[in-house]
Amino acid sequence: MDIIKVDEQITLRRIKMEDGPVIFDTIDTQREYLGKWLPFVAHTIKIKDTLQFISLTMEASDEGIDSVFVILYENIFAGIIKKIPLSRIIFYKVLDVMFLRSWYVRRELKELRKLFGDEALTIFDAGSGFGQYTYFMSKDLQPCKIFSVDVKEEWIEDCKKFFNSKRINNVEFGIEDLTQIVHSSKFDVIICVDVMEHIEDDKKVFSNFFRALKNNGYLLINTPSIFGGSDVHHEDEESFISEHARDGYSKEDIESKLLPLGFETYKSNYTYGFWGDKAWRLGIKLPISLLNISKLFFIILPVYYIITLPFTFLMMYIDYSSKNNIGSGINFIARKK
């Protein structure tokens, strides 16, 4: 897997030789601070040292040992991360803590688990990406069997390697286009997180989901809403995310496409309301934007988070505990009658 999309603004990309100058510049301009935490800084004297490091890590990646990724915010370098099983789990945990949508999705999944008692669930993760929610469900929704799919082969192969390394045996992976799936009465739960906004023929996918669910099965959709979910706040604005097929959904829009198929609304919540939006800007968007202006911000980043994280988490909790009238995201659950 060469690219891992964390969300609409943050992407992980496998390191390349052309990343050398910006990585060396980051180290060289913050040598005193980074040297306290990273032993290799003392041995990185010239750019050729960074290029040698990148070359070695690329060779290790090709041999299947481990991988190093650069962190990009709106395609601008923000850092690097080494991807091995332990660091991947830590990465999942950070996403679970720092991204409010994960709070909502995990809460609803736990509530759906309760509806089935001790029955073993069959779950379809429709658009699993780098496997964050598949991993969560494999641990916290047991007993269950999960079929996790994505349209991108490299993402699926990467997930297979990780899950096999952790000996997680209740998950199967597949490469599938959601507009062409032919499953019939197979799943108790379908989860589709941040996928539908990318698919032009969403009605076809919703119809496929209906056929794939067992009677009384549940479909959980998490997606941007029409209320600024793609950073679109007025009718004359366009989404900054080019691969979006639409800016987002409203509750009414989702219902207009699901209810005629035979679904009924089980639950609907707008997410990232007033407080959630402020938490996102304070905890994620602002610090990364500042890093893009100057890597010197790394020096005060720990102090920044010590000061701001309590306020960020408080605002996230208020949003999570509230019934938002509108928000930039929507979490929708439908039941097949």
- The strands making up the biggest β-sheet line up spatially as 7-6-5-8-9-11-10
Let me know the number of strands.
Answer: 11
Helix percentage range: 40-55%
Number of helices: 11
Largest sheet: 7 strands, mixed
Q: Beta-strand level of the residues, as a percent range?
A: 15-25%
| Overall pLDDT | 87
Structural class by sheet pairing and helices: alpha/beta
Q: Total domains, how many? A: 3
Task: Describe what you observe in this structure.
This protein has a seven-stranded mixed β-sheet with strand order 7-6-5-8-9-11-10, with helices on both faces. A four-stranded antiparallel β-sheet has the order 1-2-3-4. The model is unreliable at 232-241 (pLDDT under 50). The protein folds into three domains: 3-83, Gcn5-related N-acetyltransferase (GNAT) (Aminopeptidase); 95-273 and 322-336, Rossmann fold (3-Layer(aba) Sandwich); 275-321, no CATH class. It has helices spanning 20-29, 31-35, 47-62, 85-98, 100-115, 132-140, 153-165, 202-212, 251-258, 274-293, 301-321; strands spanning 3-5, 10-14, 67-73, 76-83, 121-126, 144-150, 171-175, 187-193, 213-224, 263-271, 329-336. A hairpin with a 4-residue loop joins strand 1 (3-5) and strand 2. The radius of gyration is 21 Å and the shape is globular. It is an alpha/beta fold. The chain starts with a strand and ends with a strand.
